[in-house]
């Protein structure tokens, strides 16, 4: 009787605060509705112990409960994330500092970084191919008009980057964190560059090398399984797309210093990466950062744009151009989520149920976070600080040929 009274008070209090397209199904057959409209999300609580996830919810606790099978959740990922954010915002305890403490407690050594990369990227190439574009570009697309399909938008993104750095035939290009090789392939085929791509993922390196050979570009493109800290030489152009999130906030200056060492005197570098909207470089609110830290990106850290620019300058770079593509990444992640759900049956054959649930939440959660300015995406073009600039174009028109 006491438990029933507690549940009734809890559900009534929540309904007084907001209307949610949510239904909660209890282990004894009772159902709690939180809107007069049909529910778009259903949470099944299999036993009394699982009630704790709902009484004071966070994105971390709810996500963990779903991933570990303590509760069942049905609905489209976008609706699940929206309902989860409403529950955490209205019933939770606000921003958690646990994610920040956990990230900063683990050093960014070569071994730890390689382990984290393998965890995230070596699920399987087939897994990623099931929801990425055919070129397997795993970073923010560029929707020049807003109505492009994903494959077109990803190709436009790569061209946008290569035009921004002014890549010309015969120049050398280093791509730090080359993924499955889409950028270096495009740079060699369409821009005539000599390219080196480095990654810490064995799966990525193997497939990227296969793609290079199939394209007949073995003399133009080299794919290395190598840490960026171990790269030698100098390059006319350097790109880093979706990689510096793995570096660690405390190591950003050293990271950009290494980039400067590898950059030719009149070279150009482009850093394309995710940032946090929090000026203190804290994790995203309501436990979302904790969930990412534990289940998706071990040791991943997001810095605020101001921190990134400061680290670039301290590392020896001059910032020349900054572009915010937050809206583009929200749209990219929404398409990835739709692709994931459309191919759910096939994806379940490629991984276990736990990893399926992790990625189901993660992709939609990222779309929500980008759409609501919790995280962002900036492309930053730099040159060596103090270098001659007479060769630079007078305007940005050259980027949009």
UniProtKB/TrEMBL annotation:
Domain of life: Bacteria
Residue numbers annotated as active site: 366
UniProt xrefs under Pfam families: CMAS, DUF7884
UniProt GO molecular function: methyltransferase activity
InterPro entries per record: CFA/CMAS, CMAS, DUF7884, SAM-dependent_MTases_sf
Domain DUF7884 per the UniProt entry, residue ranges: 12-83
UniProt entry tagged with the keyword S-adenosyl-L-methionine: yes
Keywords recorded for this protein, A-Z: Lipid metabolism, Methyltransferase, S-adenosyl-L-methionine, Transferase
Gene3D superfamilies: Vaccinia Virus protein VP39 (3.40.50.150)
GO biological process: lipid biosynthetic process; methylation
Family per record: Belongs to the CFA/CMAS family.
Name of the protein in its database record: Cyclopropane-fatty-acyl-phospholipid synthase
Organism from which the protein derives: Massilia yuzhufengensis
């Amino acid at each position: 009787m006491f438990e029933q009274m507690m549940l009734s008070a809890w559900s009534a209090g929540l309904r007084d605060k907001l209307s949610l397209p949510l239904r909660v199904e209890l282990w004894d057959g009772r159902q709690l509705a939180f809107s007069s409209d049909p529910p778009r999300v259903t949470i099944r609580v299999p036993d009394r112990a699982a009630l704790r996830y709902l009484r004071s919810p966070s994105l971390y606790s709810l996500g963990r409960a779903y991933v570990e099978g303590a509760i069942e959740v049905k609905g489209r990922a976008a609706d699940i994330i929206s309902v989860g954010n409403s529950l955490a915002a209205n019933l939770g305890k606000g921003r958690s500092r646990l994610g920040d403490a956990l990230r900063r407690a683990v050093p960014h050594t070569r071994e730890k970084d390689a382990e984290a990369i393998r965890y995230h990227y070596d699920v399987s190439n087939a897994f990623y191919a099931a929801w990425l574009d055919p070129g397997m570009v795993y970073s923010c697309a560029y929707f020049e008009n807003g109505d492009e399909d994903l494959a077109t938008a990803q190709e436009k993104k790569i061209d946008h980057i290569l035009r921004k750095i002014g890549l010309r035939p015969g120049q050398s290009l280093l791509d730090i964190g080359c993924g499955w090789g889409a950028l270096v392939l495009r740079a060699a085929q369409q821009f005539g560059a000599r390219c080196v791509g480095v990654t810490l993922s064995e799966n990525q390196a193997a497939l990227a090398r296969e793609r290079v050979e199939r394209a007949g570009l073995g003399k133009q493109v080299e794919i290395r399984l190598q840490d960026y800290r171990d790269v030698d030489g100098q390059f006319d152009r350097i790109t880093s797309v979706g990689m510096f999130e793995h570096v660690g906030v405390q190591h950003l200056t050293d990271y950009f210093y290494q980039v400067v060492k590898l950059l030719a005197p009149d070279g150009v570098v482009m850093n394309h990466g995710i940032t946090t909207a929090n000026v203190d470089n804290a994790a995203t609110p309501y436990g979302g950062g904790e969930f990412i830290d534990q289940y998706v990106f071990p040791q991943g850290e997001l810095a605020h744009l101001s921190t990134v620019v400061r680290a670039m300058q301290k590392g020896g770079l001059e910032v020349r151009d900054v572009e915010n593509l937050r809206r583009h990444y929200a749209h990219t992640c929404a398409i990835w989520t739709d692709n994931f759900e459309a191919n759910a049956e096939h994806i379940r054959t490629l991984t276990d149920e736990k990893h399926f649930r992790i990625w189901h939440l993660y992709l939609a959660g990222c779309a929500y976070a980008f759409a609501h300015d919790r995280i962002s995406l900036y492309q930053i073009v730099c040159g060596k600080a103090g270098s001659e600039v007479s060769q630079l174009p007078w305007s940005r028109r050259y980027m949009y040929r």
